[in-house]
Amino acid sequence: MKPYIANLINAGVLILLGLWGYFGSETPSMTALIPVGFGVLFALATPPFKKDNKVVAHIIVLLTFLLIIALVMPLKAALGRGDSSAALRVGTMVFSCVIAMIVFIKSFIDARKAKNAM
Known about the structure:
84% of the residues lie in helices and 0% in strands. The chain has 4 helices and no strands.
């Protein structure tokens, strides 16, 4: 899978599940919109990412990594209160970010190998 496609899929997952978390809650919190913001940012960054803009690629990787870390606490909280719907949403967002990170890292490794092979 191409990194920009993984980024776009991840953006869609973050936007959809973040909005579901916000609008599906009886007591919505603005923090539920944080993944939506990241998703919108990732979607907007996809065109330069597709054109192999290295700065944008590294920023997306860094933000994706930070988002994985940031989503651990809401996941633990959802599991702690037995909210399976929230745990599923947040767990899916974490999974999506981890898969995107794997694709990004594999892409960086492949690019390094190709550069060294020349």
